[in-house]
Amino acid sequence: MVEQVKHLNLNHNLNFNVVENLDQAIPAADIISCATLAREPLIFGKYLVAGQHLDMVGAHRPNMREMDDECLRKAKIFVDNLPGATKETGDIVIPLQNKVISLDDIKADLFSLCKAQVQFQRSEQDITIFKSVGHALEDLAAAKLVYQHANCDANSNSAC
Q1: How does pLDDT run across 26-46, given as a tens digit for each residue?
Q2: 95: buried, middle or exposed (CB in 10 Å: 19+, 13-18, 0-12)?
Q3: Are strands 31-34 and 128-131 parallel, antiparallel or unpaired?
Q4: pTM for this model (two decimals)
Q5: Is 74 in contact with 53 (CB distance < 8 Å)?
């Protein structure tokens, strides 16, 4: 998959790397994104460093985990949908049940951020997590973005 993405002309200054040892690669990453069906954590908080962001979109069932408890202890936690995240994903459900985190540790959900009901100023030292369990609003936003880019490409509009 990485090889396929490398050949796309995305017009962005992005680097993709295949790594053999995830634990060694974690401290060097600015953004860590996981979209897996993992039942056990793949990302361990002991390897996280200041300033990183975790984008966790897999582990969509209550018995699945992509990150361990230490990730949650070290980070500012945001979710796409609070009711869904607290019931559907083991990344949040299990730490809540084990009292590793509380509902108060979840800073905001996507709705409250978009409505500016919650303000968050991220410092360079913050480690942040966005945990998504999937929500129709996200699908709609992604579809709209793809449609807009397709129209820009079809019209060869460089202003898009």
Answers
A1: 999 999 989 899 999 999 999
A2: buried
A3: unpaired
A4: 0.77
A5: no
